[in-house]
Design goal:
The complex is a heterodimer. By secondary structure, chain A is mainly α. Chain A is built from seven helices and no strands. By secondary structure, chain B is an alpha/beta fold. The chains are: A mainly alpha, B alpha/beta.
């Protein structure tokens, strides 16, 4: 495996050089493009052996990552980092835009939890008087470690079904 | 906000490698600057990095650091002045400490005061704030702030902020002048302002932390180095980018009550054992970045402690409202060992917090004072706060004063005597013991009684950088503004002197934020 990587490295550099040169022609973004930094969402070409190599590389580099149970099935047992991490780089932080694709927008989430919060006489966690709907999903919902409720920094309540 | 697909395609496969190359180039550049810097003709005393070999990733007219009251107000005004604006927020959520503050805003000469026949003036507000600040306030800033409150209030209305139909009187204010938002939270102000700013075309970028301010050879602000994709509090997360700034950098980076290293360096007793009401991101790196480009510090070791906080919950919580609107005006606070009052419960914050901090046992451990009121005294406390405080055990309810005394370990007889003395004072309308203003005939007579344990928490950093009335940051060596550098809000030192009055921070942040936004936005590039 290592030998293959060593063998491939110069090729990667060459590719990087070519693409860098072509990309340099692009001027720094105007502000309208600037703030919205969601990374590219292109489909990766799937090849079984490529996927196997990627898996091996990830095992070495990243080790075993824990995953929330409810994500096992839909996210191919947790081997598809790009579903959350944008496929751009397995160590890039997860992007909320990817949560939204399955779970719905912030407003959808707010509607979903409104009733239950009211029943329990608690504030709606997805629409609060402090932040509105603007708290990114990953602020509280962590995939690879225990989730932490932002509210709990001050408040004593928690939500039963919060994961 | 459509993106050009071609551009995307060109960027896609190379993004990380391009970054790596850029970073390498930047590092090489930094090394060159490091060697060459001593020979450069920098502005007097400036030690910030010069921009000689920085390759800029992006360019904006105005960059605002921080998305609280000041940052949001500045964003709106800078947009209105025609600048393109980006607001950087290092936390994943926007609003900073403003989002979790209590939403109380002191306004001199508000419309509502006029309607209710309350006589107030800018000079009265200045006098109140000066008295609390022990006369050490920067009066030029104070005057600008107090004069700006009425129009800042109208400004918030314009963006859909909703207030209660009454004017509150907070401790240390000589007249009722505090406007209170509907949900008793600063989020009621900062969320609509953010939406308004976005509608005007300002960009809000979270998880983006300021690393340092970059000056040009004349010592003017040329840009900033930021950490995009910053995952608080991991200082190695994300990637470094450089933004060039055409008009101005506005530092609205807030206070630093949560910065333990900073806090302990200034005042060693404010260590881990003292909690803070602030959100976790209230740290000092924004202030440090300005010091690194030779900004003048003011009162940098002056912290305000909130006397109304409770050790039985984290952060800001419910206690401030429970005490400020219940037990302090309509009840008493007693030393749990003696059952006696020890301070005017409506004095300014410093007086009260200092008195509370003295209540320690022989080993120096805190003996938490206890606030007491009846249900009649809770009439001004918002329902949700009262309910939640009781539900989560921050406040407690007792069927008799005996039960209250027993639970809190207060000697019963002295407590009963104290209550009798207090009731007499309420009857007379004059508190001869501690001089508390008696606002209503609410006696401590009928059960149920409510109580809460108190202990001060670090609440507000009165220190910060020196600015002039145009919100320009002043250079420590020359006394002149650092061109292109503005600051507003809690990161500014001076206006509040030694002790800030309650509800005056929103006033400060909104007024100075607007001024900074206007001046930075209209500055010629």
């Amino acid at each position: 495996m290592k030998r293959i990587i060593r063998y491939l490295t110069p090729l990667f550099f060459l590719a990087a050089l070519v693409t860098t040169v072509s990309a340099l022609g692009v001027s720094p973004s105007a502000p309208s493009q600037a703030a919205e930094e969601s990374a590219p969402k292109e489909e990766l070409a799937y090849h079984p052996s490529a996927q196997a190599r990627l898996n091996m590389w990830m095992q070495q580099k990243l080790g075993e990552r824990t995953l929330k149970k409810y994500h096992y099935k839909v996210h191919q047992n947790g081997v598809s980092c790009e579903l959350c991490h944008n496929g751009q780089n397995p160590t890039a932080p997860a992007d909320d835009a990817n949560c939204i694709r399955c779970h719905g927008s912030a407003s959808d989430m707010a509607k979903l939890t409104e009733e239950r919060a009211k029943e329990n006489d608690l504030p709606n966690p997805h629409l609060t008087k402090h932040f509105g709907e603007d708290v990114p999903c990953t602020t509280c919902h962590k995939e690879h470690k225990k989730s932490e409720l932002l509210c709990a920094n001050c408040h004593k309540y928690t939500y039963e079904k919060f994961q | 906000m459509k993106r050009d697909p071609r551009r995307k395609a060109a960027n896609t496969p190379t993004k990380s490698r391009r970054d790596a190359l850029k970073n390498m180039m930047a590092m090489a550049g930094a090394a060159v600057v490091g060697v060459a810097a001593p020979a450069r003709a920098m502005s007097p005393g400036a030690s910030g990095s010069a921009s000689g070999s920085v390759s800029w990733d992006r360019e904006f007219d105005v960059v605002i650091v921080g998305s609280g009251f000041a940052g949001s107000a500045a964003a709106i005004e800078a947009r209105r002045a025609g600048a393109d604006v980006i607001v950087l927020e290092k936390m994943p959520y926007f609003g900073g400490n403003s989002a979790i503050n209590g939403g109380a805003f002191a306004v001199a000469n508000s419309r509502l005061q006029a309607t209710l026949g309350i006589k107030d003036s800018v000079d009265t507000m200045i006098a109140d704030m000066l008295k609390a600040g022990r006369g050490t306030n920067h009066v030029d800033l104070l005057r600008v702030i107090c004069e700006g409150t009425a129009s800042a209030y109208e400004f918030t209305l314009e963006y859909g902020v909703k207030y209660l139909d009454k004017v509150l009187q907070f401790g240390g204010h000589s007249v009722p002048r505090t406007m209170q938002t509907r949900n008793y939270s600063g989020g009621d102000i900062v969320v609509p302002l953010r939406q308004g700013a976005k509608k005007l075309g300002a960009f809000f970028k979270n998880k983006c932390k300021l690393e340092r301010i970059v000056l040009n050879v004349q010592g003017d602000v040329e840009g900033v180095a930021v950490r995009e994709g910053y995952a608080f509090p991991d200082e190695n997360s994300g990637v470094i980018r450089h933004y060039r700034i055409r008009r101005g950098l506005i530092m609205c980076s807030g206070g630093f009550s949560r910065d333990l290293f900073y806090r302990k360096s200034q005042i060693p007793t404010l260590d881990e054992s003292v909690d803070s009401t602030n959100h976790l991101g209230a740290t000092a790196e924004g202030f440090h970045a300005m010091l690194a480009v030779n900004a003048m510090p003011v009162n940098s070791s002056s912290f305000q402690l909130g006397p109304w906080a409770s050790p039985d919950e984290g952060g800001f919580g419910y206690a401030p409202q429970f005490n400020q609107q219940g037990t302090f005006p309509y009840g008493i606070m007693v030393d749990a060992r003696t059952g006696k009052r020890f301070v005017n419960e409506m004095a300014d914050r410093k007086t009260r917090a200092d008195a509370e901090l003295k209540l320690r046992d022989a080993q120096g451990k805190p003996v938490y004072p206890v606030t007491i009121c009846t249900t009649a005294g809770t009439k001004d406390i918002p329902d949700t706060t009262l309910k939640a405080a009781l539900r989560f055990g921050v406040a407690r309810k007792y069927e008799s004063i005996e039960a209250l005394a027993e639970h809190n370990n207060i000697p019963l007889e002295p407590l009963k005597e104290q209550i009798a003395r207090y009731n007499k004072a309420v009857e007379k309308g004059v508190d001869e013991e501690f001089g508390k203003p008696i606002r209503a005939k609410i006696f401590l007579d009928k059960p149920p009684f409510l109580s809460m344990r108190c202990w001060p928490k670090v609440h507000f950093a009165q220190g910060g950088v020196r600015i002039n009335t145009r919100a320009e940051v002043l250079n420590m060596s020359t006394g002149k503004p650092i061109a292109g550098l503005f600051a507003a809000g809690e990161v500014v030192g001076g206006p509040h002197g030694e002790s800030r009055l309650g509800s005056c921070s929103i006033a400060d942040c909104l007024v100075m934020g607007r001024i900074a936004g206007r001046n930075a936005g209209s500055r010629s590039a």
